[in-house]
């Protein structure tokens, strides 16, 4: 199962969903689904935008768990 660590990364930086939406231009519902780990897919453009914004690698944002 793929786990999204967006909430942990945002928490470490004290960011709100509204901050990420405003600064990246990603749709609010997309960020919310990623934050709550209810999404079933992610576009490469979204992944790239989040990684650039959070200054992290894709492997830090998305991890594989058992």
The mean pLDDT is: 97
Tally the helices: 5
Shape: globular
* Head-to-tail CA distance between termini: 6 Å
- Low-confidence runs: none
Q: Write down the CATH topology.
A: 434 Repressor (Amino-terminal Domain)
User: SS-based structural class?
Assistant: mainly alpha
**Share of residues in helices:** 55-70%
Main β-sheet, in a few words? Answer: 2 strands, antiparallel
Protein name: XRE family transcriptional regulator
Domain HTH cro/C1-type: 6-61
GO molecular function: DNA binding
Q: What would you say this structure looks like, in words?
A:
The chain has one domain (2-64): lambda repressor-like DNA-binding domains (434 Repressor (Amino-terminal Domain)). The longest helix is centred in the C-terminal third of the chain and has 11 residues, at 44-54. The chain contains 5 helices and 2 strands. Helix 2 (17-24) crosses helix 3 (28-35). Strands 1-2 form a two-stranded antiparallel sheet. With 66 residues, it is mainly alpha-helical. It is globular, with a radius of gyration of 11 Å. Helix content is 58%, strand content 9%. GO terms for molecular function: DNA binding. InterPro entries: Cro/C1-type_HTH, Lambda_DNA-bd_dom_sf. This is XRE family transcriptional regulator.
Features:
single chain, 66 residues, 58% helix, two-stranded antiparallel sheet, globular, XRE family transcriptional regulator, mainly alpha, 434 Repressor (Amino-terminal Domain)
Topology:
Layout: E1 2-4, H1 6-12, H2 17-24, H3 28-35, H4 44-54, H5 58-61, E2 62-64
Antiparallel strand pairs: 1-2
């Amino acid at each position: 199962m793929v786990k999204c660590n967006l909430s942990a990364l945002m928490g470490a930086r004290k960011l709100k969903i509204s901050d990420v939406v405003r600064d990246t231009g990603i749709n609010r519902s997309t960020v919310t689904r990623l934050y709550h780990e209810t999404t079933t897919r992610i576009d490469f453009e979204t992944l790239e935008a989040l990684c650039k914004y959070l200054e992290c690698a894709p492997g830090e944002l998305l991890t594989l768990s058992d």
